[in-house]
Amino acid sequence: xxxxxxxxxxxxxxxxxxxxxxxxxxxxxxxxxxxxxxxxxxxxxxxxxxxxxxxxxxxxxxxxxxxxxxxxxxxxxxxxxxxxxxxxxxxxxxxxxxxxxxxxxxxxxxxx
Amino acid sequence: xxxxxxxxxxxxxxxxxxxxxxxxxxxxxxxxxxxxxxxxxxxxxxxxxxxxxxxxxxxxxxxxxxxxxxxxxxxxxxxxxxxxxxxxxxxxxxxxxxxxxxxxxxxxxxxxxx
Lengths: 112, 114
Hints:
heterodimer; A: mainly beta; B: mainly beta; 4-stranded antiparallel sheet
């Protein structure tokens, strides 16, 4: 079993819809939770990171962490075609250094 | 505003050939990382260097070696390439190797081994 599970998609939504992405993780020791966005043939870029349960908002993006359920989510409001990309969740344990463990990524397609 | 630069962008090798992938960062970061990305597998850490002069194995180090040449450069070497090493390789850097410092990625090297 992978340490971080993520539905590979693709997830297709109409422009303006809310995109909902999820990951589950198995190790309760994970402390930091991140979302990366990766466009085709590009490297991942950090979108959001958080270390506590609850919500964190940044513009159209909201990251949600539920440590009791080992579940992390990313919501994208008012989705745009430019949001079409692969979204990767990542987790880390602070004591283990800055080594990220990634989910497999979810492909998102926002149709105009 | 280069960030993390990887060379080459594409490469095709034959089984058994050797190759070095180059990575350089201009952000004065202390820590650097090499990942491979395979379909459905996300990114998996091959090797990392928490600071200049140190290197450590990650999740999938077999078949690879690394060199932290200086603070800016971190290279990945395949001594005897195998088809299982066909992948997209990403280099990343962060300010430090502790805690939750954001990692900045290059745009990858696409490597095919025949």
